[in-house]
Amino acid sequence: MSRRALSRRTLMAGTAAAAATAGLTGCLQNPSPGGSGGGAVNRYTEGDVPGSGTVTILGAFGGQEQEAFEASLAAFQKESGITIQYTPDQDFTTTIQQRVGAGDAPDIALFPQPGGLFDLAENVTPIDVFLDYDQLNSTLIPGFLDSARLQGRVMGAPMRMACKSLIWYPKAAYDAAGYSTSPATMQELIGIGDQIKASGITPWSDTWGSDQATGWVGTDWIEEYMLRVHGPDVYDDWTSHRIPFNDERVVQVFDLVGELLKTEGNVLGGVDTMINTPFSEAPLPLFENPPRAMLVRQGNFVTGFFPEDVLANIDTEVGVYAMPTWEGGFEGQPILGGGDLAALFNLNDDSAKVMAFLTSDKFGAEWAKAGGWLSPHKTFPQENYADETTRSIAKIASEAAVFRYDGSDLMPNAVGGGTFWTNMVEWLQGTKTSQQACDAIEASWPA
Fold first, then answer.
1. How far apart are CA 268 and CA 293, in angstroms?
2. How much is the pLDDT for 147?
3. Which residue spans of the chain are classified as CATH 3.40.190.10?
4. pLDDT tens for residues 386-445?
5. Which of 13, 149, 395, 424 is most buried (CB neighbours < 10 A)?
6. What residues are paired with 339 via a beta bridge?
7. pLDDT tens sequence across 230-260
8. How does pLDDT run across 279-297, given as a tens digit for each residue?
């Protein structure tokens, strides 16, 4: 999904402890003394600012997610003696801006997208001031901290992840047909699709309907291919507009995705069905008897749209594997995804301790057991997850060579939540070529 436009403000620390660090920009790794980025950082030392015994957190998730989140904090609160007050807000993006603007920021905020964090970066304490950057980075899936980096400083750390680069299939029918569950390349996966089509079943189910956001599913396809065909460095240049949106490499990716999605018989129902069917219904044809399609590319959250009987027996009903690499492209296994980034507004002994726990591989066991949560740490004990399917997804993510945040969430809102979506629809419908769609999106990029 998209978000508000990035703000490229000069970094300033939100507290006295961080103020001396504001002038350090441009380093690409750990800016702490002895780290690979070099340069001195005014590190926070316990005792500099005593805490009050209470730490406030503002986030976007409520309901069962809030219950699981609070359960994951219970033991820490008892052991540390720190009381954590969590406030959920469905209009988090607006509320956090209002509260920070009014001088009423929470101690910690949990940002569902990097852009909102960057917009408020001048009020946030960079994590290298109070966390052990190298230790944290060593346990995280590679590349995760890059999603929170602005002008050389990492402004937040992940406490939850979403994994998008997944291929789902109906286990019994797929296995009975003998199709590979570990294709090494996208070319091999496309070949499996050809085998499925030859058997009389449509290989892919892919639906994009999402009201005003129709088209976002298509942006994910482009992002997945950009990572695989051209690698994370070019991906970063593209999402940050260091190369134009209509760069020949981007146009090439549109053409490659088009070969898969627009070829007759590859996607159930064709273009009209894709555009007019809610994205949440994409997996349903896989679970008909017999299946009307065999493959769905979607993130781990798609399990929330599985039929109840399938969800109740997910390990036997559903299979999942990583969307593979591109032969001739980036050699490592990339993962596209998202996550909630914890950021610190008020630095003191208590809030620093909460941040250290919240962003560590020690957090989340209770949430993992409840379901619907993935740790961004490759060192998180996978036995904490409630089912084998989730453990498989966690293993896919933990073994990834590199993680990259959803590209449309990194782009200005006018693009990532606007012209990228709308031009994907026009491109799919054939009213614009790959070149024309990319030209139009480039022309819309804010100055």
1. 7
2. 86
3. 16-163+338-388, 166-334+407-444
4. 999 999 999 999 999 999 999 998 999 899 999 999 999 999 999 999 999 999 999 999
5. 424
6. 161
7. 999 999 999 999 999 999 999 999 999 999 9
8. 999 999 999 999 999 999 9
Give pTM, 2 decimals. 0.88
Which residues in 385-411 are b (16+ Cβ under 10 Å) and which e?
A: beeebbbbbbebbbebbbbbbbbbbbb
The per-residue pLDDT for 40 is: 59
Q: What is the mean pLDDT of the chain?
A: 91
Fold for the domain defined by 166-334+407-444:
D-Maltodextrin-Binding Protein; domain 2 (3.40.190)
Furthest CA-CA distance within the chain: 69
185-244 confidence digits (pLDDT tens): 999 999 999 999 999 999 999 999 999 999 999 999 999 999 999 999 999 999 999 999
State how far the Cα of 409 lies from the Cα of 216, in Å rounded to an integer. 10
3-state secondary structure the chain: CCCCCCCCCCCCCCCHHHHCCCCCCCCCCCCCCCCCCCCCCCCCCCCCCCCCCEEEEEECCCHHHHHHHHHHHHHHHHHHCCEEEEEECCCHHHHHHHHHHCCCCCCEEEECCHHHHHHCHHHCECHHHCCCHHHHHHHECCCCHHHHEECCEECCEEEEEEECCEEEEEHHHHHHHCCCCCCCEHHHHHHHHHHHHHCCCEEECCCCECHHHCCHHHHHHHHHHHHHHHHHHHHHHHHCCCCCCCCHHHHHHHHHHHHHHCCCCCECCHHHHHHHCEHHHCCHHHHCCCCCEEEEECCHHHHHHCCHHHHHCHHHHEEEEECCECCCCCCCCEEEEEEEEEEECCCCHHHHHHHHHHCCCCCCHHHHHHCCCECCECCCCHHHCCCHHHHHHHHHHHCCCEEEECHHHHCCHHHHHHHHHHHHHHHHHCCCCHHHHHHHHHHHCCC
CATH code of 16-163+338-388, in short, is 3.40.190.10
- pLDDT tens sequence across 141-166: 999 998 899 989 999 999 999 999 99
Phi, psi of 368 (to 5 degrees): -60, -40
Task: For residue 42, name the pLDDT band (cuts at 50, 70, 90).
Answer: confident
